[in-house]
Specification:
Layout: E1 5-10, H1 16-27, E2 31-36, H2 44-54, E3 57-65, H3 66-70, H4 72-89, E4 94-100, E5 112-113, H5 126-135, E6 145-151, E7 155-161, E8 168-176, E9 181-189, E10 203-210, E11 213-224, E12 228-235, E13 240-244, E14 254-258
Parallel strand pairs: 1-2, 1-3, 3-4, 5-14
Antiparallel strand pairs: 6-7, 7-12, 8-11, 8-13, 9-12, 10-11, 13-14
């Protein structure tokens, strides 16, 4: 495998800030690589994640204005990029944001965000922090185990375990916002899409509200050991995910996870 690198994502059209960041990282002994974030392809995040994984990206540096980093489209795509990159590399990948302009809006404290730790504006000591996180990444504090498998032919599949390191009585995933939906589901060993699945007591098209968010959800009552996962194929790009278990077919505690923060 190639040496670790810092993957720089430039969200704007001006390359100067990215070039300056690359020079600073090189002085700390961390090889800079990266890209200008594509805007003309809805699924460009798939290719970006594959390229970053092949380059052995150990940390991601986001560079852009507060407006570019607060764009809902950019955040959804970056969230999917992060999940895909971590799944491809089978490890946590931390990130930092070099922001110009007004500070970014804070994350709602009651909702976990897929980008919360990446979007915290970096301070003047960021190169040293980037090197430290590249060599000792911190796992994101998400309430569920998450992964993402994205292929043009098979579609986008979310991997979920509602109770990491424990056995779960069933599993449910809901999507909310941006006209997203779920079109298929299965269970199988963690870490790869299952070739076959025996689905127990399926739930499809379940609808519920959490606060002001309306969710469309699918679920199965299969018992999931820590070595297994629930997989759902997602159509579109949701703003929020709802993840929970289904003990005795009843929806109990549900975790809401944002792709926008």
């Amino acid at each position: 495998m190639t040496d670790k690198c810092a993957w720089i994502i430039n969200l704007g059209s001006n390359d100067a800030p990215a070039q300056a960041a690359a020079m600073q990282l090189a002085q700390y002994g961390l090889t800079p690589k990266g890209q200008r974030w594509p805007t003309d392809n809805e699924n460009a995040w798939m290719t970006s994640a594959q390229e970053a994984a092949e380059a052995n990206a150990a940390i991601v540096i986001l560079i852009g204005s507060a407006q570019e980093l607060s764009s809902e489209k950019n955040r959804r795509d970056l969230a999917l990029f992060r999940l895909s990159l971590q799944t491809l590399q089978r490890k946590a990948v931390n990130g930092l944001a070099l922001v110009s302009g007004e500070p970014l809006p804070g994350n709602a404290p009651e909702r976990a965000g897929l980008l919360t730790d990446w979007l915290t504006p970096a301070d003047a000591r960021w190169p040293a922090k980037a090197v430290a996180r590249a060599h000792a990444p911190v796992a994101p504090k998400w309430p569920a185990r998450l992964g993402l498998y994205a292929q043009e032919r098979l579609g986008v599949w979310l991997e979920v375990h509602p109770a990491p390191n424990e056995t779960s009585s069933g599993a449910l995933v809901g999507v909310s916002g941006n006209d997203a939906s779920i079109s298929f589901h299965a269970t199988g060993p963690a870490g790869s899409l299952p070739e076959r699945s025996v689905n127990e007591y399926e739930l499809q098209g379940l609808k519920f509200d959490i606060g002001n968010l309306a969710f469309d959800a699918w679920g199965l009552q299969n018992t999931l050991t820590p070595e297994q996962s629930y997989y759902v194929r997602i159509e579109g790009k949701p703003n929020y995910l709802a993840v929970g278990a289904l003990p005795e077919g009843q929806l109990e505690e549900v975790h809401v996870i944002s792709l926008l923060s």
